[in-house]
Specification:
The complex is a heterodimer of chains A (about 180) and B (about 625). With about 180 residues, chain A is of the alpha+beta class. In chain A, about 35% of the residues lie in helices and about 40% in strands. In chain A, the strands form two sheets. In chain A, strands 4-1-7-8 form a four-stranded mixed beta sheet, with no helix packed on it. Chain A has a four-stranded antiparallel beta sheet with strand order 3-2-5-6, with no helix packed on it. Chain B is mainly α. The chains are: A alpha+beta (about 180), B mainly alpha (about 625).
Chain lengths: ~180, ~625
């Protein structure tokens, strides 16, 4: 019977480890040539993005008024950060709700730029409120007020959030 | 012949790319941290954009050791290469890592770079270059990559048809924590390549009994059993093959192939009752699967051999219907791809959020049957093409979004210009007036400071005379001059009086000098404070004035230049997407047509076998009923 004589061949083909198949045979060279061109256009777009960001920063956030706020978590922080709210001089600056991926990125040592804006030179008040859950399941709400001085150059403020400590002890604000 | 297990290599490379730089040490550079934040979320474009600028800025500064990136520069340069690699920019990744390799770095850093470079070459199928890169490794090797290096070396040897060398390396990796399963399986494959059949079987048997609950290692264990079963089957040891095929998990990725093979192993020794068991299970599974389709024919074939022709006819009938339906589905899929619906579905954002998004494409209306493309989708070149197409679509989306921003930029610049330009001439005119007065005062202040400093080193009491004393001194000088020219008989007494008066003045100046200098210094210090305040306000004004101009001047050219660059990039991307898309469509259609051809062939066989089974069933029935 023809099915039986042919079957072992199909069986053997099915048992081979997966290897580049038709695509390589039919169009591997074309694929590779296009791959090179795609890499070039990626480089080009990255360079455009860099120039555009630079322009945008100059236009929207000049250095004499620029203030940027960053969030980080200490190493081995076990709390689940749900949201952060920032107010500058009593006015809402930003409010961010964290996705799982964002929280994971923070826990792995990433630093989030949560806010970029403009303030005049001089003394200002920053209010930080964080919401989350502790490892034991308890709700976590902390808030703290911090002063900062805006000088002529761009101002970068780093906020380190931690679930430990009473009151606003888990919120640390520092210059970067 | 068994070829290099690309699946296992693929899993390996994924594992190698996972470590994140800078995780273990305190972060000192904010922007490096920001790049990591993006990278940890898979946003490699944003991560690269951020880190590339940061590293470039670092290399441009005069005193890099004062830059915060200095603490992480090795990690940052590695990360740059890693991000480029993950963003499928192998050319740049290779350059970035080569730069580290050729820099003045210590052995552990250099060896890490050499390993990464080798990995890039391996991915690009450049085995000689990969071995050369590994050859640069000498001295201290970081513990975390020791096994990685050796496993990569073994895989390169396998790809280079040097199984004996690979065997030596893989033997040393048998107790590796990270590569236990992979190394065990690959060692079996290396023995096979070297023609050492017995050793290969023993090794695959060991790999097939691995105790683990790790999904990747379980898959490797299944694969080992499947390959070993296949080897024994090929050698004609059908009964010996069966236990290994039966060890393959029923819910694993190699289950269908194992069930099919187990059936054939039984059928080959004419044990059709046993063959029916795995084939019955398989025939009920997804009809798009190669093995399931074959089982739909094999099962009634076995029933025929068991003289159960009626049941065979029923199963042939079911196979015929199923194959017909699948051929129709494939026809619709091919038409769908030709109409561009495959590419449309690929770039849909909502479907790509799912990790099995390619499979889920089939759930979209009028999308092609992607199960038939799974094998194709798993191939390296197709994956590269597909990822490139998706990357291009993402880039296009970014560029189009940026394009819409240019008008807003220009509006903003216009509004600022309209606001500032009428105000600035008047402001400038007032400022010029104030500026000249301020400059005069600044010069006067400088002169006073200099005078004070001079007085400290060379006391000149007359410099601290009061206006009255200065007037008196002047008057005395005038009288003295007059006396010299008058020739009066009272000259002597007058001159004596003048001398006394002058003496009195000098006495006052000399005796009060220190007190006056102290007072002068006190007043000057108060003036310094006022002048510093003035200087601060002056500079603040200048900055504000410059900021006013900078808020609208000098943007038009860069905005226009960017506008042109973005438009050009969109054109290039459209052209590339069209080419890449056509290529993907062609390859996908070829694959579907090949699968359709096979199904049509199966359908013909099923049709013929169905008729044959009916005949045999009818004849058997007639024999039972008798003449």
């Amino acid at each position: 019977m023809s099915i039986l004589t042919r079957a072992p061949l199909l069986f053997l083909l099915a048992c081979l480890p997966l290897t580049p198949g038709h695509a390589q045979d039919l169009s591997g060279d074309d694929m590779r040539s296009l791959d090179g061109q795609v890499q070039e256009i990626k480089s080009d777009v990255l360079s455009i993005a860099s120039e555009l960001n630079n322009l945008e920063e100059r236009l929207l956030y000049p250095s004499n008024t620029q203030v940027a706020v960053f969030i980080e978590l200490p190493q081995d922080e076990s709390m689940r950060l749900d949201a952060v709210k920032l107010e500058i001089d009593g006015a809402m600056a930003t409010h961010h709700i964290y996705s799982f991926k964002e929280l994971e990125a923070l826990q792995k040592g990433g630093v989030q730029r949560i806010y970029t804006g403009n303030v005049p030179t001089g003394d200002h008040q920053l209010t930080v409120t964080m919401l989350g859950k502790l490892k034991n399941g308890d709700d976590l709400i902390k808030s703290g007020n911090f002063s900062f001085t805006k000088d002529v150059g761009p101002k970068a403020l780093g906020i380190t959030l931690s679930g430990s400590g009473p009151g606003d002890a888990g919120i640390k604000v520092g210059d970067w | 012949m068994i070829r290099v297990p690309f699946t296992s290599i693929g899993l390996l490379l994924f594992a190698l790319l996972a470590p994140s730089p800078g995780q273990s040490e305190e972060l000192k550079d904010l922007y490096f941290g920001e790049a990591l934040y993006n990278a940890h979320q898979g946003q490699y474009f944003e991560a690269l954009e951020r880190l590339d600028s940061e590293v470039r800025q670092y290399s441009d500064v005069d005193e890099p050791e004062l830059d915060t990136l200095h603490f992480h520069i090795n990690d940052a340069e590695f990360a740059l290469g890693d991000f480029e690699l993950r963003y499928r920019m192998h050319h740049r990744a290779g350059r970035a890592i080569t730069a580290v390799l050729e820099g003045a770095v210590d052995a552990t850093v250099r060896n890490d770079a050499a390993y990464r470079l080798a990995r890039i070459h391996f991915q690009k199928n450049q085995m000689d270059e990969a071995l050369q890169a590994l050859g640069r490794i000498e001295g201290e090797i970081p513990a975390r990559i020791r096994d990685d290096i050796e496993f990569l070396r073994a895989n390169i040897y396998l790809a280079e048809q040097r199984p004996a060398d690979s065997i030596e390396v893989l033997k040393r990796l048998q107790n590796s924590d990270n590569y236990r399963g992979f190394a065990a399986y690959n060692l079996g494959i290396a023995y096979l390549r070297a023609g050492e059949q017995q050793a290969a079987r023993e090794q695959l048997e060991r790999a097939g009994q691995l105790k683990t609950d790790d999904p990747a290692e379980l898959a490797i264990r299944d694969k080992s059993n499947l390959v070993l079963g296949t080897l024994l089957y090929e050698a004609g040891n059908f009964s010996d093959a069966r236990p290994y095929l039966n060890r393959v998990r029923l819910d694993g990725p190699f289950s269908n192939q194992a069930l099919l093979s187990a059936g054939w192993a039984a059928a080959s020794v004419d044990n059709y009752e046993r063959a029916v068991v795995p084939w019955s299970i398989l025939a009920e599974r997804n009809t798009t699967d190669y093995a399931a389709q074959e089982a739909m024919l094999a099962l009634p074939y076995a029933y025929g051999k068991l003289n159960v022709h009626g049941r065979a006819a029923v199963h042939y009938g079911q196979a015929l219907d199923a194959f017909g339906a699948e051929v129709e589905k494939l026809n619709a899929s091919v038409d769908g791809i030709r109409d561009g619906r495959f590419l449309e579905a690929l770039v849909r954002e909502e479907i790509r959020k799912d990790k099995d998004w390619v499979i889920r494409l089939r759930s979209l209306p009028e999308s092609p049957e992607t199960y038939y493309l799974m094998e194709l989708l798993a191939s390296h070149d197709f994956q590269t093409g597909l990822q490139n197409y998706l990357d291009l679509a993402d880039l296009r989306g970014k560029l189009v979004a940026w394009q819409t921003g240019f008008d807003s930029f220009e509006d903003m610049v216009d509004v600022r210009q309209t606001h500032y330009e009428p105000l600035l001439p008047d402001v400038d005119s007032k400022f010029r007036e104030l500026d000249s007065r301020m400059r005069l005062r600044i010069e006067q202040h400088k002169t006073l400071v200099k005078r004070r400093d001079d007085l400290l080193t060379m006391p000149r009491p007359e410099f601290l005379a009061t206006p009255e004393e200065q007037a008196l001194s002047l008057r005395l000088e005038q009288i003295e001059t007059q006396l010299k020219s008058a020739h009066s008989p009272f000259d002597a007494s007058l001159q004596e009086r003048m001398r006394r008066l002058r003496g009195l003045l000098i006495w006052t100046l000399e005796t009060e000098f220190h007190a006056r200098l102290t007072e002068f210094d006190k007043h000057l210090r108060a003036l310094d404070v006022a002048m510093a305040e003035l200087d601060g306000r002056y500079k603040a004004y200048v900055r504000s004035r410059q900021a006013a101009t900078h808020s609208y001047a000098g943007y038009r050219k860069p905005v226009n230049r960017l506008r042109v660059r973005v438009a050009g990039a969109i054109e290039d991307i459209d052209r590339l997407m069209a080419r890449q898309g056509r290529l993907l469509e062609t390859v996908a259609i070829d694959e579907l047509v090949a699968r359709r051809g096979r199904l049509q062939e199966y359908r013909d066989k099923a049709r013929f076998a169905l008729a044959d089974s009916y005949d045999r069933a009818t004849q058997a029935q007639a024999r039972v009923e008798g003449p």
